[in-house]
Amino acid sequence: MRSFASRKSILRMVSIKVMIRSVAFAGLFLMGLLHGDETAPSVGGKAFTVSGDLKHFKTPKDVKVEGAPDDTTYSEEVYASSLEAKVEGLPAGTYKVLIDSAEVYNHAAGQRVMKITSGDTVLADQLDIFALDGFAKVCKIEATVDHQEDAILGPLRITFTAIHGNAKFNAIHIFDSNGQLVASVKACDLVAAADAASSVIPVITDPVIYTDPDKPMDARIDDLIRRMSLAEKVSQLMSAAVAIPRLNVPDYNYWSECLHGIARNGHATVFPQVIGMAAAWDVVKIHLAGEVIATEGRAKYYQAQRDGNHGDNHGLTFWAPNINIFRDPRWGRGQETYGEDPYLTARNGVSFIEGLQGDNPNYLKAVACAKHFAVHSGPEHGRAGFNVDPDTRDLYETYLPQFQAAVQEAHVESVMAAYNSIYHVPMSANKWLLTDLLRGTWGFAGHVVSDCGAVGDIVGDHHYVKTVTEGDAEAIKAGVDLECGSSYRNLTQAVEQKLVTVEQIDQALHYVLRARFRLGLFDPPARVPWSDTPMTEVESPEHLALARAIARESIVLLKNDHVLPLDKAQIKSIAVLGPNADAHLNGNYNGDPSRPITIFQGIKDEVGDAVKVDYFKGCPRTHDPAKPNEDVSPENYQKALTAAKAADVIIFVGGARYHLGR
Length: 662
Prior knowledge:
- The chain has a 6-stranded antiparallel beta sheet with strand order 3-4-7-12-9-10. Strands 1-11-8-14-15 form a 5-stranded antiparallel beta sheet.
- It starts with 17 loop residues before the first strand and ends in a 10-residue tail after the last strand.
- The protein is α+β, with helices and mostly antiparallel strands.
């Protein structure tokens, strides 16, 4: 224990003493959301009520807090811009307050600064746990407070107010003057208390039909939903849907990517970046690429199931294609799109979706997702709070046609809502676009998924409503059925506060579960056409040949002053220059080819030993102070010039890093 006097006066002395104790530990937290205004039973007998727009982090089970007194004190932490913990019914007297906190999220001083008070008494002022103790150390704030009877000044209250960032605690304990514990609350107590009310399991005596593949799909979905508690329903509305063992519902993660091949999931056939595929002007091959991706997706899904891997990027719900319109390279991430033209984008998008989802009358081979709806085109930086005000003609002629085609022609199963606002309404809260237009006018029957973290942005970046609970309710009512993230955990509280109805939760869940039923994930494997897809389909010769064919067609020749085609018989030396000539150009949202060939290597393979081929980088892609190794030495620059002067042919391969568009 170190005394308060050694602490740079960050904490104010309260009553008799304030002491700070620190214990080192290591731990990571997973983000989640908690309900505002929660009551939990107290170890000391008096109940704690904690109110505010509460959020929390949950410690992973495999993380052990070094020096922690038990397994629960630091298993959760509660945080908010402002929160209050109160205990009613304590007799007048002097009490010791002990607050357990630790900084495990921020890695620099000044990122979280708060003030803690009890009535007019300041327990901690300008408290910066990181500045005080550094990262991953427990900070115990101990103070004594004088309490009058409740009838005079009200219950004993402890208020946490953020000065910068947010305020937080892990646990609060109150002792009387004899050292007897009279009230205690842990963040995990609040979670358990909130979960209890929403975890009541309905009693259903009717026969189970959701497991019967011969029953109508909608009836099966409704049968499964009515057997779930409210908490179980809410748990299925987040991208990492948890298992419900009693109903034999396995966990499933809806987040997988396949922009131009199965992404972030090991080796796969990698097609050209989407902007390159658009330059091929070949909707037939884009359709075939969709078919290839679905086939490899099925093979990888079943292998992941055999391996027990149910994590992200191992499912069959793919968040592609990106059919936004790209008209200014300064916006960023244009390589993910089919370019600037709504018609070309629509034709390519429809072809890709139809290839990916397949034409089986009973099942989808994979689920496609048309993103980002709508008018996402704009600066990548600041996208979470960006507002656009397109004129009506531009909206309907430029930014909506490709999405309408995806829905009405390709029957896309999923649509992703964008981060931005339109006419000052966040897309994740935009009922006009997500429900009235998308479902009412266009007839969309699948599910809408938020972009990752966008539901929380309704409050945090758009400031459209005041609380997270209100933001979650606005999203559900607007038509966001599935959330990428964990904000929807707050929906049980939204129901309790009558901000949203159980029927609205059920409707959203019906749309979401429809995807899994249409994929055949609740049916016997023998009923599903692709359940025996082998891993030998991944990077098969036929798939690689198609990728090569599309790559050939994607090349655009802008000018030719009688240089091409080259005659190998007339060439003795080639100088290959440029920062991307010997780089593996896989793009982003990409797979990992098992046998990548750089442009430099491809040229050498093509011309053989009879032609001398030299490579020098010559220049960086673009100067980036954060990546000094990208810079080229004067010696390398001079070698490139020398090689260029001596060579019969110079081939320069330039370009920027893909991440510069972000």
